[in-house]
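Form 7-S
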Amino acid sequence: MAERDQEFLEFVVKGLVEHPDSVKISRVVDEMGVLLTLDLHPEDMGKVIGRSGNTAKAIRTLLRVVGMKNNARVNLKINEPEGGMKSQDTGWDGSHEAPATPQMKSLDEAMGELGNI
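Output:
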């Protein structure tokens, strides 16, 4: 298999991004399989992650197929670049909790609030 998975990932990612020269991929093989680590330009993160992570999921699925063809388990880690969303003060603490459900109001309470607008 050598680095076919790495070459495939590089081809796909460089085709998506605005800064292909900033794409860096490292490959580590251990008892768990192959780990490809992807580093990108901060402006390209959205293109690689995609809406709701769908592009990243698709890339990971294709990498698994490439790995299965060569009897290897391939995983992808996408590093957060310097200046990315996590390094900015966005108030996001990393949790994925759903927001609290707002309290239900009676029809009279809701109409009263509309009257105050």
